[in-house]
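To: structure subgroup
Subject: Chain for Friday's discussion

All,

I'm putting the inputs and outputs inline so they're searchable in the archive.
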Amino acid sequence: MKRKTSTADLPRRRLLQATAGGLAALPLAACATSGGDDDTEDVTNSGDAENPFGVDPSAPLDVVIFDGGFGNEYAKKHQELYKEKYPDAEMEFLATQQIAETQQPRFAEGSPADVIDNSGAQQIPFDKLIADGELAELTPLLDAPSFDDPDVPVRDTLREGIIRSGTFNGKVYQLNYIFSAWTIWHNGRLFTEKGWPTPESWEEMLDLCKDIKAEGIAPWTYAGQHPVYLYDMFLMLAGRHGGVDVVKGIDDLAPDAWRQDSVQAAAEAMYGLYEKGYILEGTPGIDHVQSQTAFNDDEAAFLPCGSWLPNEQRGIAPEDFEYVPFGVPYLDGSAQPGLVSAGGEEPFVVPERAANKPGGFEFLRIMLSAKGAQIFGDTVQAATALKGVEVDNEAARLVDAMVADPENLFQPKFRFWYTDMNEEVRPSLGALMSGEIKPDKFIDRMQKVADETAADDSIEKFSHDE
């Protein structure tokens, strides 16, 4: 049932007053025209293996996909699977990189899509969505019979860490469909030709940088316009040095967490890359496409990026380019040198006020079928949340080997939990790596916003202990 959205509904929609990925704040009154029913019924799990959520077979389904490194072909095939089961359902489909720009107005109107892949630079902040009650809680999906075996619930088919990565204070609001790792990449062919070893320690990496630079190649580049690509490199450098609790302390807003010795050491090490002239000239001003192009052309030897990189560069990189991932080189005296930022990525959500919420849950269940997951693996050569999906790709196998030990896997969370901290860390890291600020200034900036966040009672707090 559709109804007009009254102005009385508007104050609670704080998420639309925030910016997302540089999107300007939206005028609420202008957005509030018509929308869905705020009093939508909760989706329950009947246990019926064929239709556990009570999907109306003829109800249309509205799906929005982030059209980034994984493309959208896999999502089109997932829709075909949904249509096979519900042939009378009309499918609406949008593939875009402008998630906030296209979807925030729909949340404001009360008529969001039924399934949204809330990812990319214009991701709508999760803390805002959750605080405003805009997302459906996904436990009924996890407890439902899996698509392939009615005796096995969906939760038992998922890889280690997938549920945890979508959990906020004990409640699951997102299905992270991809099992991903943030790593450092190099060209295996180039390194073999030059006789360069893959560095394990930071000192080994710095020594190798001298040889790389002597060959007329810049040791490092990154997406300077999007310093989020530096985020996991920096935090893993600190976490490897002091152990995972260093990074957990930052996420949990522990007092002076940014002033820990390991965080200071990581900041100094990354600033040192600028100081030594080991970063490709012009890097602070380039975007991810330009940084990856320079990497493909062997203008730079190392690139920090996620495990989607080889797929994103299929058909772009030279045919003989060998994408080889390795962990962030560890500092001398590191307590946990094998720590890797890995787990669930690409967060899919079902809005609380979706017109076809049961269909949204069922679409996610179909995505988590063996066929749905294999479609993704075959299409983009990357691992999904589902256990047992084999990917015939050397780079993906190397990433899998890196993340084999669950004790060494950890996903930093504060940029998903706290918008203000996320909006500060990106430019601050960019300024650190470009030499605009020194490590002490970087630490001061981040500790200040962390203290302000901790002291603000209007901000919901999250914790790894929940």
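Points worth raising on Friday:
DSSP finds 19 helices and twelve strands in the chain.
Confidence is low (pLDDT under 50) at residues 1-37.

D.
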